[in-house]
Amino acid sequence: MTFIITVYVNEGIVMASDSRLTLSRTLTNENAFKAQQNQVLMDIVQSDANFKLFLAPNGVGISTCGDASVNGEPLAGFIEAFMDEEIAQVFNSPVEGDDVIEGTEVDKVADQLLEYFKKLPGPPDTAFHVAGYKTEGGKRVQQIWRVSVKSGEKALVNSNGEKGVLWDGEGDVMYRLMQPVYRKNDRGEYVSMENPEIAFHYFTIQDAIDFAVYATRTTVETIRFVATRSKTVGGPIDVLVIKPRDTFWVQRKQLQVNS
After folding, report:
1. CATH code of residue 82
2. Angle CA(58)–CA(165)–CA(197) in degrees, nearest 5?
3. Closest-CA residue to 50 (of 21, 22, 16)
4. Is 150 contained in some domain?
5. Phi and psi dihedrals of 67, rounded to 5?
6. CA–CA separation, 218 vs 133, rounded Å?
7. What is the pTM of this model?
8. How many domains does the chain have?
9. Which domain holds residue 203?
10. 66 and 129 in contact (C-beta within 8 Å)?
11. What does the alpha-carbon distance between residue 233 and residue 34 come to, in Å, rounded to a whole number?
12. pLDDT tens digit string along 81-129?
């Protein structure tokens, strides 16, 4: 599995992901009676150098979770092929009065991505975040899309221009922190604890970076210390910032020779 997160605030968009690739294997106890064979599902850490966050042409960010391979080949190669083959490049950000080439902005990228991956064998049970800006009335407007290949659906997360956060993959750790919690008092009664409210509309872009990294690290460390849980989230954290006319990596693992 994995953990991906997209934080969208007034200054821009921050996307982050972990880097762990795990393989699921089912082991069978061959010494057991055939009718009562014991099967154990194991998640094996294959790599901590897997890329799950990508910068597509025209300042569009793409992150992925779920199935990490197609026919035994890593999904990253298919995403890079999609970006190279399907997305028309615009070298200058569209501004008022410019002609926008069909298929270049974030909403069209979400459409193209879904169609591309639906044609692959399976198709893979993979979800994507597609984030960036679309030119509307001379303004650059944030759009955060969630694309589900298996169900063939895509949804605009911030349809009313809201500010907030979207995460996917192993999201239960963050849900536990953000959802209402009840505790039992001395009389055995359940009392609601204060529900944490995150003021995303006040976030600076640095706050968004810090929250994205916090959420990813919290997920990694919580899973690490739960003895009965597979260690499916881990490795370096990649962080991408998307602003209306500027896109850059804050942190991205580098290819290197490990001696």
Report:
1. 3.60.20.10
2. 155
3. 21
4. yes
5. -55, 130
6. 29
7. 0.86
8. 1
9. 3-251
10. no
11. 35
12. 999 988 866 555 444 445 545 457 899 999 999 999 999 988 999 999 9
